[in-house]
Structure formats: C-alpha cells, structure tokens
C-alpha cells in the first residue's frame, strides 16, 4: 500500500491551522482558527500573531487528532510552513511540528508557503478536473501578488510580481480608509455590491506596459486623495463608501487582468489558468478571471474559498506532492522519503 498520511501545520500569518491529509487527497480532519486578536488593531500584529499561534496550536492539533480517530502509527510524516511569512509565527509552527515529529519518530518536511498555494489546485476533489503541469498561476494574497508558471513540483518560473504592495494589502488599506472592519478585503467586496463602479476613475499603475509586474500603491494613494475631499472624522455616507469600494474593486481587477493577460502571452503550452491566495476569494475578480481564461480557451480553476486563504490542507498536500516526486526519483529512505530540503 503506497498510501500515506501527513499531519500539516500552517502558522505564517494570522491563521493557526492544522490538517491530516492522505496521499489520495482525502482531507481526513482539519482545524483552523482565524485569529481575532488583531481586530482591534485593524491589521495583523506580528508579535500578537506569534503568541496567539503558541496559545492555540496545541489545542487545535489535539482536537484534530481526536476527531480523526487516527493513531500516531497511521501518521507517516509531519509537515509545516517554514517560510515565507511572519517569522514569529513561522518559528512557533515549525518548532511545534519538529517537536511532534521528533517525539513520534516521524520525518519532518519543511514546506514553502508559496509552493503550497501554487499546488493547491492539484488537490483531487478540490478541482473538478485533474490539473496537469504546466499551468499559469495568479497568486494574490495579503503578502504576495505574482504570476507563476508552475512547470512541475519544485519548478516554478516567476514571470512577474508586485513592485510595491500586494493586492490584498491594497484591499485592506482601502477598506480601512472606508471605515470597514478588518480584514478589509471581504468587507469591501460586500460593500462594493451596492456601489456604482463607474463613479470614480482611479489610476491603473503599469496598465498597458509590457511584462506582468504589478503595482498597487498608487491606486491606494489615489483613494486616499479622493477621500481628502470629504470629512472623514464622521462615517462616510454609505452610498459614497459603496461607490468608492466598487470603483476600487473594478480598477484593481482591471489592473490584475491586464498584467495577467501579458503573462498568458509570455508562456506557451499551459494547460489552464489557476488562481490562489486570499484575494482569489473575491467573486468579482474570479468572474473576470474566468472571462479572461475563456478568451484564451483555457480552463480556469479557483479553489473553494477556504483553500484560497491560508490553510493547512495545502501544506499537507505540498508535502504529499514532494514525497511522491521523491519516490519517483527513488529518493526513498525507510518507507517514506526524508528530504534534503
Ligand atoms: O492568503 P491569505 O489568507 O493570507 C496571506 O496574505 O498569505 O490572504 C489574505 C488577504 C487579505 O489581504 C484579505 O483582505 C484578502 O486576502 N481577501 C480578500 C477577500 N478575501 C480575502 N480580498 C478581496 N476580496 C475578498 N473576498
Ligand atoms: Zn498565504
């Protein structure tokens, strides 16, 4: 029996998450705690995030193992995000995972958080088609915005990325200016539904230029400048806030689409267009990504919302892909690969 099971941990930002994932893609059990500790600060506070991971992780892992009915001898390896991310949280999660691996005499697999986002669309049952390499990925979250050609497990071509803010950062900062609660992205999307997206013309940095780098800080500043015409010491009228939200969402979507279209022209032979990262949870953006994919006759795959944002299932799945590749390359020690990563 070649099937194996990974216990995975994610703690690189403000989600404390753990999952048990089987090599056939079955999600046996998962727990996630989206830290509420940051709400009153209007943004993630790294020190508080690290302490919250420390406080919650053990209970979550215990709860997950208990609900799974698995015993330790049915778990083959432990994986954790080892970067990139907020270093305090990364240290908490990866040290906890290494401790578990050591105490249970299991291999430990270090996972790159971006690689895990990149491979999420390949989790069986998550996509309705089997995603084959190579494919083009738009990864857009609170910390990242990049176009990646995913050629194989471990082989990624960075085609372009943001030269200033990530798209999620722009969503969050604009939401904050509009007086929306943190995290701003989802709240802004809801408000934008009521708004007139054509009311305000906002700049689209890099629009029409070659390449697929992104820039969002000018757009963010433009919203700030727009608001300087209004009294922001009192709550904004709801229609005004909604119109700004809708105009911003339309503009940032157009920017992303323009850059991504260049990326599509920079690659050849891709099987599909995929997306991942928290901002990919935005339905307005997803609809436009689907239209763009249709224009180029590419299937479009977006993971369900809970696997677009940070989660431990993707960490477990990345470990599975890495181990399966190692097996194919005969890098096998004992009954599971121990990787030189
Ligand atoms: O991938 P993620 O959970 O964490 C990392 O940054 O790695 O992404 C979180 C980001 C936040 O900026 C959040 O506001 C944004 O994704 N986001 C959204 C939506 N849902 C989450 N932005 C726009 N629309 C959404 N529906
Ligand atoms: Zn992420």
Automatic annotation (TrEMBL):
Residue sites binding Fe cation per the record: 113, 117, 310
Subcellular location: Cytoplasm
Keyword line: Acyltransferase, Cytoplasm, Iron, Metal-binding, Transferase, tRNA processing
Chief localisation class: cytoplasm
Chain positions recorded as substrate binding sites: 139-143, 172, 185, 189, 282
Needed cofactors: Fe(2+)
Ranges where the Gcp-like domain occurs: 26-317
Cofactor, free-text remark: Binds 1 Fe(2+) ion per subunit.
One Pfam family from the record: TsaD
Molecular function in Gene Ontology: tRNA N(6)-L-threonylcarbamoyladenine synthase activity
Domain of life: Bacteria
EC number: 2.3.1.234
Enzyme class per UniProt: transferase
InterPro entries in alphabetical order: ATPase_NBD, Gcp-like_dom, KAE1/TsaD, TsaD
Catalytic activity: L-threonylcarbamoyladenylate + adenosine(37) in tRNA = N(6)-L-threonylcarbamoyladenosine(37) in tRNA + AMP + H(+)
Record NCBIfam families: gcp_kae1, T6A_TsaD_YgjD
Family per record: Belongs to the KAE1 / TsaD family.
Function according to Swiss-Prot or TrEMBL: Required for the formation of a threonylcarbamoyl group on adenosine at position 37 (t(6)A37) in tRNAs that read codons beginning with adenine. Is involved in the transfer of the threonylcarbamoyl moiety of threonylcarbamoyl-AMP (TC-AMP) to the N6 group of A37, together with TsaE and TsaB. TsaD likely plays a direct catalytic role in this reaction.
HAMAP family: TsaD
Record's protein name: tRNA N6-adenosine threonylcarbamoyltransferase
Organism lineage string: Bacteria, Pseudomonadati, Pseudomonadota, Alphaproteobacteria, Acetobacterales
Record gene name: tsaD
């Amino acid at each position: 029996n070649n099937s194996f099971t990974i216990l995975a941990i994610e703690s690189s930002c403000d989600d404390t998450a753990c999952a048990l994932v089987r090599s056939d893609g079955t999600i046996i059990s998962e727990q996630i705690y989206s830290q509420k500790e940051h709400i009153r600060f209007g943004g993630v506070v790294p020190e508080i995030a690290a302490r919250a991971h420390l406080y919650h992780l053990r209970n979550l892992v215990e709860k997950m193992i208990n609900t799974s009915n698995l015993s330790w001898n049915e778990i083959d390896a432990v994986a954790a995000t080892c970067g990139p991310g907020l270093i305090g949280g990364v240290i908490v999660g990866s040290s906890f995972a290494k401790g578990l691996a050591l105490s249970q005499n299991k291999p430990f697999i270090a996972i790159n958080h971006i690689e895990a986002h990149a491979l999420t669309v390949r989790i069986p049952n998550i996509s309705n088609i089997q995603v084959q390499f190579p494919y083009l990925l738009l990864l857009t979250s609170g910390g990242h915005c990049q176009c990646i050609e995913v050629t194989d497990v471990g082989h990624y071509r960075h085609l372009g990325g943001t030269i200033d803010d990530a798209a999620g950062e722009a969503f969050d900062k604009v939401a904050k200016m509009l007086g929306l609660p943190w995290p701003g992205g989802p709240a802004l999307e809801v408000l934008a539904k009521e708004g007139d997206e054509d009311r305000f013309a906002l700049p689209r940095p890099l629009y029409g230029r070659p390449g697929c780098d992104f820039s969002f800080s000018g757009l963010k500043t433009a919203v700030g400048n727009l608001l300087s015409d209004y009294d922001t010491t009192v709550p904004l009228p709801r229609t005004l806030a909604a119109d700004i939200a809708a105009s911003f969402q339309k503009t940032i979507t157009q920017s992303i689409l323009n850059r991504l279209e260049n990326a599509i022209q920079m690659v050849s032979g891709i099987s599909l267009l995929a997306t991942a990262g928290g901002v990919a949870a935005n339905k307005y953006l997803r609809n436009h990504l689907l239209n763009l994919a249709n224009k180029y006759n590419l299937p479009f795959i977006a993971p369900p919302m809970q696997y677009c944002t940070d989660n431990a299932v993707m960490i477990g799945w990345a470990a599975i892909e890495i181990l399966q590749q190692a097996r194919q390359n005969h890098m096998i020690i004992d009954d599971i690969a121990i990787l030189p990563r």
